[in-house]
Amino acid sequence: MIAMSKKGRVLVAMSGGIDSTVAAMMLHEEGYEVVGITMKTWDYASAGGSKKETGCCSLDSINDARQVAVNMGFHHFIVDIREEFGDYVIDNFVEEYIAGRTPNPCVLCNTHIKWSALLKRADAMDCEFIATGHYAVIKEHLNRKFISKGKDERKDQSYVLWGLSQSCLDRSSFPLGGFSKPEIRQMAKDFGYDELSKKPESYEICFVPDNDYRGFLKRRVQGLEESLKGGKFINANGDIIGTHDGYPFYTIGQRKGLGGGFLTPKFVTEIIPDTNTVVLGEMDDLIRNGMEVGQVNMMKYAEITEGMEALTQVRYNDSGVMASLHPLGENVFVEFLANVRGIAPGQSAVFYEGDDVIGGGIIRSSSLK
């Protein structure tokens, strides 16, 4: 029988990958009573994909997580949350593309599914905290918890965590936040898991492991391709300059896959779902200096004040641009202090003060004055 720890009981989300595995090992070594949990979010075979199931939902990954728990001597559970995950995250993913937007399912999953599922199981297992293998740090300011960037700038995942509530942050821990990826790989070796230290990382959406979101949409929505085929490419003047396979299969800023015959490189600058139309232009036609952000979640501060300035990031691994923030009802209007290219409605906008996350939201629209 595993003895109770004086440090407390923590539920660790274990995908089978190196980051979450080392997080569990670290907490176990520090004296916490660790309970590992692997969440089955998606059965890729049911989607008709062309490649073998990979990533956090694969049988190999689940077995890897379980084996580490056995070796280290702590409990491990597998929880099927496919119904919870699918109804919300996947339906939203499809609906956003059908609406002409570009979704960010990892943010939505963190905010509405994974943390909710983890806390629910933590309560059932008498765990005080939950922990994940994210590269980020939790800090506190004026009795508010907030996310701050992790030590490793190349691996920092603060961008995908902006939606976590205060109640979620109160019970969360990110053991890897103060370490770099090479340090984590070395820890895996030191724990005796040399093969784990060499395990490749996956940057794919878990339910689209072949990275073909267009194929996923076609399989998910019967008749989608046939009903939208033959849509029009137009230029900024409204002139028809070609045909396409259907507006959901294109994203703002896209250059490849637009067909040939253009004298200069073309980019998707606008998507018009009502008319199945995709607007193409030059690179400079992607420039915007403002955007509206909705579904805002505040972190470091309780609210955004008029004219507050923040480094604003509009995509993962984006370096960000300074902007002036203006409350607009429940939304925020963001006025960039330098032009930004390729703002895609549906993606996340995250506001930073130094390394600290002020808050974030979902991009509703962009503008050029």
Summarize the structure in words.
- The chain is of the alpha/beta class and 369 residues long.
- It has 3 domains: 9-133 and 175-197, 3-Layer(aba) Sandwich (Rossmann fold), CATH 3.40.50; 231-277, no CATH class; 286-367, Elongation Factor Tu (Ef-tu), domain 3 (Beta Barrel).
- Helices cover 26% and strands 30% of the residues.
- It has 9 helices and 17 strands.
- The chain has a 6-stranded antiparallel β-barrel. Strands 3-2-1-4-7 form a 5-stranded parallel beta sheet, sandwiched between helices.
- Strand 2 (33-40), helix 2 (59-72) and strand 3 (75-80) form a beta-alpha-beta unit.
- Helix 1 crosses helix 6 and helix 3 (82-98) packs antiparallel against helix 4 (105-124).
- The longest helix has 20 residues, at 105-124.
- The relative contact order is 0.13.
Gyration radius (Cα, Å) is 22 Å
Number of strands: 17
Going across the major beta sheet, what is the strand order?
12-15-14-13-16-17
Return the CATH topology of the largest domain.
Answer: Rossmann fold
CATH top level assignment of the largest domain: Alpha Beta
Give the amount of beta strand, in percent. 25-35%
Helix content: 25-40%
Largest sheet: 6 strands, antiparallel, barrel
- Tally of distinct domains: 3
Mean pLDDT across all amino acids: 91
Shape: globular
Structural category is alpha/beta
Features:
369 residues, alpha/beta, Rossmann fold, Elongation Factor Tu (Ef-tu), domain 3, six-stranded antiparallel beta barrel, five-stranded parallel beta sheet, 9 helices, 17 strands
